[in-house]
C-alpha cells in the first residue's frame, strides 16, 4: 500500500493523519486534490497524480479554476454539493466516472488552528480493475445461472443440514414443488421410507469430501415416484466443505425401456422356444448354430449334434438343394429377405419333407450381416391335401352340375370362370351367358358395394363369407339369393379365386314376412293387455278408499254399494282385456326411493288394513338417490306390494327393506304367504302365466320389462307355505342415463 500525497505540505501532514480517510490504498492509479471557497465560488487549488492524466485534465485548465469550468455540468453540480458538505465539516466518499474512468473519491475538511474549515482535501483512486472484476464476476454468475436454469437435469445445492440453498427450474418440474417450497425444505421428504437411511448416508459421505453417484427412487409432491440417478459433489471453499452440489437425472423412462427390452427379449426367446416352426440361427464367422426344440423334433438333429460345423449349410439340406440354398443365403448375406419359399429339407433319418422356408439377416454392431435366421414350416401334409383336392375336383364338378343350388367360380377381379347348369332353373339364363363377364353386372346396383366388401373381407381373412344379393332374372324381376363364398388358394397359399354357392330365398323371405306380421298382431294384443293392466291399479286404490269411506259413512249406503259394484264391473271387463306394455318416454330423474316407497305404502295401506295385513318398512340411512323414471318404478313397487298383500288373504305381515348392496339399491318385499313352487319360478314374468285365479301374468311381466329398461334385476326367493321375497336391484349411477 502507498500514499500519493506529493501535494501535501509538511505543515499539513499532521492534519492529514488526523483526517478520517483510510491510511492505505492498493497500487491503483490515483490522484490528490484541494479546493477552497473564494467569493462564494469553489476554486481548485491543487491536483496531482497518475489519475489526473487519465482523466484528460491539464493543470493550466484546472488550477485556480471554478468547479463549473473544470467538469461537465452534471458532475460539477454533484461535486459542488459534496465539497460544500465537506466545508461544513463532513468526511465523504463517493463513486463516479470521468472520461470513461470509474473512480472512488474521498474528501474531507482541512481545519485551521481556530477550528474553522478553510479548504477541502480529496483523494481519488482508479476503479477500472475493480469494475472489470465485478463485470467478470457478474458474467460468471450469469453463466452459472444460465447453466442452472436451462439444464435439462435437476441441479441443486444443499447446506450442511441437507436444506436446499439453490434449485433450478428442472428441480421444480421433477419434484412438483415450487422454488419457494424447495428452498424451505430438506431432501428427506423426497426419499422413499425404505431408502431414506441410505440417502442420508450418501449425503454424509459427500460432506466428507467424497463425490458420490447412486440411483434411487424419489416421491413427487403429487404422490408419484420417479427413478433418479444422483451425482453428489462436495462444495469446498478454502479447504472447507460448505455443502453439497447435486445433479439429479431422471432415468425412469430409461429403466422402463430397459425393462421393456428385457421383457421383449424374454418374450422373443419364449416365442422361439415354443414355436411349432423349426427355427435355426447360423453365425457366418464360426458356423455356430442355435436351434429351437421344434427344429430338433421335426428334423431329428439335436443342438449338440450341430456343433463344430465347417459350413453354414446345415445337414438338413439335401444335396440336390445345396445350390438353391447357396443362392438364397447369398441374398440374405447382402441384407435381403427370403419369405415363404417352398423347398425340400431332409430329416436325420433321411425322410424328405416339403417345407415353407423364410430367411432373414441378423446385423452386428457395425451394421454388417453376422448371422442369418431360418424358419421352416413342414407343409408335407398340406401338399398331400392339395393333391387329394385336385384328385377330387372332378367328383365335385359332377355334384355341382347336378345340384339345384347355383354354383359358380369367380376370380378376384370378379370375372366369371364357371357357372353350374342350375342357373337356368334359378335365374333363367344359360350358363354360357356369364363366361368371361364381370359378375357385378348381374347384381342389383344397391347390393354391389355390400358384395364388394364381403369379397374383400374373404380375401383378407381367407375365410368363407356369407351374404345376400339380388340377381336379375331372365324375365326381368329380381331374385334374392343367399350366397356362401369360399376362397380357393393357389400353390403359394394365396387366394386367387372363390367358389360361390347360392340358393333362392324368395319362399323363405315370404315365410319370414308372415312371421313378422304374426308377431305384430301378437304385440298389438299384448299392448291392449298392458293398457288394461294400467287401469287395474288405480281401480284398486279407488275401491279401497270407497270401502274405507263406506265404513265411516252413516248415510247414502246405497250409493257406496252402487259405486263399488260398478268398479267391480269395470275391473271385470279390464280383467278380460289382454295387455302387454304401454310405450312411455324414459324421462329419468334422480329419485329418493324411501319417499317413493312411503307413497306406495300410503296407496295400498287401506287394502292391507282390509285384509288384516301389517306393512313394516325399514331403510338404511344415507341411501343415494338413483336415476329412474319414478312413475315406472312406482308401478313396479305397487305391483310387488299388491302381490305380497294378495298372497296372504287371511292376513299377515309384509316387510319392506331398502338397503345398498355394492353398486345397487335393493328394495325387498317379503311376505309370509303360500309361496311359489320351485318349478314355477323360471316361468314367472312370462305373459299370460300367473299363479292367481283371475290374473293374466302381465303385471309381473311389465315389472320385469321396466326393471330391465333401468339396467336392474329382479331376484325371487320363495318356499311353499313359508313365503316369498321379491328383490328389485336398481343400479347407482352418477350420470343420467340416455332416455
UniProtKB/TrEMBL annotation:
All residue ranges annotated as the PAS domain in the record: 140-210, 264-335, 392-462
Gene Ontology molecular function terms on file: protein histidine kinase activity
Keywords for the protein's UniProt record, in alphabetical order: ATP-binding, Kinase, Nucleotide-binding, Phosphoprotein, Transferase, Two-component regulatory system
Segments forming domain PAC: 87-139, 212-263, 339-391, 465-517
Domain Histidine kinase, chain residue ranges per copy: 530-734
Known catalytic reactions: ATP + protein L-histidine = ADP + protein N-phospho-L-histidine
InterPro entries: HATPase_C_sf, HATPase_dom, His_kinase_dom, HisK_dim/P_dom, HisK_dim/P_sf, PAC, PAS, PAS-assoc_C
Family matches, as PROSITE patterns: HIS_KIN (PS50109), PAC (PS50113), PAS (PS50112)
EC category: transferase
Keyword Kinase recorded: yes
EC number(s) recorded for this UniProt protein: 2.7.13.3
One Pfam family, short name: HATPase_c
PANTHER family hit by this protein: PAC DOMAIN-CONTAINING PROTEIN, PHYTOCHROME-LIKE PROTEIN CPH1
Protein name: histidine kinase
Amino acid at each position: 500500500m502507498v500514499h500519493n500525497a506529493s501535494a501535501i505540505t509538511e505543515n499539513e501532514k499532521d492534519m492529514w493523519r488526523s483526517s478520517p480517510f483510510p491510511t492505505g490504498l492498493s497500487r491503483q492509479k490515483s490522484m490528490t486534490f484541494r479546493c477552497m471557497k473564494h467569493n462564494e465560488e469553489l476554486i481548485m487549488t491543487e491536483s496531482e497524480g497518475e489519475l489526473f492524466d487519465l482523466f484528460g485534465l491539464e493543470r493550466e485548465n484546472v488550477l485556480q479554476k471554478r468547479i463549473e469550468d473544470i467538469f461537465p455540468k452534471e458532475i460539477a453540480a454533484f461535486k459542488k454539493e459534496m465539497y460544500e458538505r465537506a466545508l461544513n465539516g463532513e468526511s465523504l466518499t463517493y463513486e463516479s466516472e470521468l472520461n470513461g474512468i470509474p473512480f472512488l473519491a474521498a474528501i474531507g475538511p482541512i481545519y485551521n488552528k481556530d477550528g474553522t474549515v478553510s479548504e477541502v482535501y480529496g483523494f481519488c483512486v482508479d476503479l477500472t480493475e475493480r469494475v472489470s472484476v465485478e463485470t467478470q464476476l457478474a458474467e460468471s454468475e450469469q453463466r452459472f445461472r444460465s447453466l442452472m436454469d436451462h439444464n435439462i437435469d435437476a441441479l441443486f445445492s444443499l447446506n450442511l443440514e441437507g436444506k436446499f440453498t439453490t434449485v433450478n427450474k428442472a428441480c421444480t418440474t421433477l419434484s412438483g414443488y415450487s422454488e419457494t417450497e424447495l428452498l424451505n425444505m430438506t431432501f428427506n421428504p423426497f426419499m422413499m421410507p425404505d431408502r431414506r437411511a441410505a440417502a442420508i448416508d450418501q449425503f454424509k459421505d459427500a460432506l466428507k469430501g467424497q463425490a458420490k453417484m447412486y440411483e434411487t427412487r424419489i416421491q413427487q409432491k403429487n404422490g408419484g415416484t420417479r427413478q433418479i440417478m444422483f451425482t453428489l459433489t462436495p462444495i469446498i471453499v478454502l479447504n472447507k466443505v460448505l455443502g453439497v452440489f447435486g445433479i439429479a437425472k431422471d432415468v425412469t423412462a430409461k429403466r422402463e425401456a430397459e425393462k421393456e427390452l428385457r421383457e421383449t427379449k424374454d418374450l422373443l426367446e419364449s416365442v422361439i422356444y415354443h414355436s411349432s416352426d423349426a427355427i435355426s440361427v447360423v453365425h457366418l464367422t464360426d458356423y455356430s448354430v442355435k436351434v429351437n426344440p421344434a427344429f430338433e423334433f421335426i428334423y431329428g438333429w439335436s443342438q449338440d449334434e450341430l456343433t463344430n460345423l465347417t459350413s453354414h449349410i446345415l445337414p438338413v439340406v439335401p444335396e440336390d438343394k445345396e445350390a438353391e440354398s447357396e443362392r438364397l443365403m447369398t441374398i440374405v448375406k447382402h441384407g435381403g429377405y427370403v419369405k415363404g419359399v417352398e423347398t425340400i429339407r431332409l430329416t436325420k433319418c433321411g425322410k424328405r419333407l416339403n417345407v415353407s422356408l423364410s430367411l432373414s439377416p441378423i446385423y452386428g454392431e457395425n451394421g454388417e450381416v453376422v448371422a442369418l435366421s431360418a424358419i421352416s414350416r413342414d407343409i408335407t401334409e398340406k401338399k398331400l391335401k392339395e393333391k387329394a383336392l385336385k384328385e377330387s375336383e372332378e367328383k365335385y364338378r359332377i355334384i355341382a352340375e347336378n345340384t339345384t343350388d347355383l354354383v359358380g367360380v369367380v376370380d378376384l377381379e370378379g370375372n366369371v370362370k364357371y357357372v353350374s347348369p342350375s342357373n337356368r332353373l334359378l335365374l333363367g339364363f344359360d350358363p354360357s351367358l356369364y363366361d368371361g363377364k364381370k359378375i357385378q353386372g348381374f347384381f342389383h346396383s344397391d347390393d354391389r358395394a355390400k358384395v364388394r366388401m364381403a369379397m374383400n373381407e374373404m380375401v383378407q381373412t381367407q375365410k368363407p363369407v356369407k351374404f345376400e344379393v339380388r340377381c336379375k332374372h331372365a324375365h326381368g324381376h329380381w331374385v334374392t339369393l343367399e350366397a356362401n363364398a369360399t376362397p380357393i388358394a393357389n400353390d403359394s397359399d394365396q387366394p386367387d379365386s372363390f367358389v360361390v354357392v347360392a340358393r333362392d330365398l324368395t319362399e323363405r323371405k315370404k315365410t319370414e314376412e308372415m312371421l313378422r306380421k304374426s308377431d305384430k298382431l301378437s304385440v298389438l294384443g299384448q299392448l291392449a293387455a298392458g293398457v288394461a293392466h294400467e287401469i287395474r291399479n288405480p281401480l284398486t286404490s279407488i275401491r279401497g278408499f270407497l270401502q274405507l269411506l263406506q265404513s265411516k259413512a252413516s248415510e247414502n249406503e246405497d250409493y257406496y254399494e252402487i259405486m263399488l259394484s260398478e268398479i267391480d264391473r269395470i275391473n271385470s271387463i279390464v280383467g278380460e282385456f289382454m295387455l302387454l306394455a304401454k310405450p312411455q318416454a324414459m324421462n329419468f330423474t334422480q329419485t329418493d326411493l324411501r319417499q317413493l316407497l312411503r307413497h306406495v305404502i300410503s296407496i295400498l295401506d287401506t287394502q292391507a288394513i282390509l285384509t288384516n295385513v301389517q306393512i313394516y318398512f325399514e331403510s338404511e340411512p344415507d341411501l343415494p338417490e338413483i336415476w329412474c323414471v319414478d312413475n315406472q318404478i312406482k308401478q313396479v313397487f305397487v305391483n310387488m306390494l299388491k302381490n305380497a298383500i294378495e298372497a296372504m288373504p287371511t292376513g299377515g305381515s309384509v316387510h319392506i327393506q331398502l338397503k345398498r348392496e355394492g353398486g345397487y339399491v335393493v328394495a325387498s318385499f317379503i311376505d309370509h304367504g303360500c309361496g311359489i313352487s320351485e318349478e314355477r319360478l323360471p316361468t314367472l314374468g312370462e305373459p299370460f302365466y300367473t299363479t292367481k285365479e283371475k290374473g293374466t301374468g302381465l303385471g309381473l311381466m311389465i315389472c320385469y320389462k321396466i326393471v330391465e329398461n333401468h339396467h336392474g334385476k329382479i331376484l325371487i326367493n320363495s318356499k311353499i307355505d313359508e313365503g316369498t321375497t321379491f328383490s328389485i336391484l336398481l343400479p347407482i349411477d352418477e350420470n343420467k342415463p340416455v332416455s
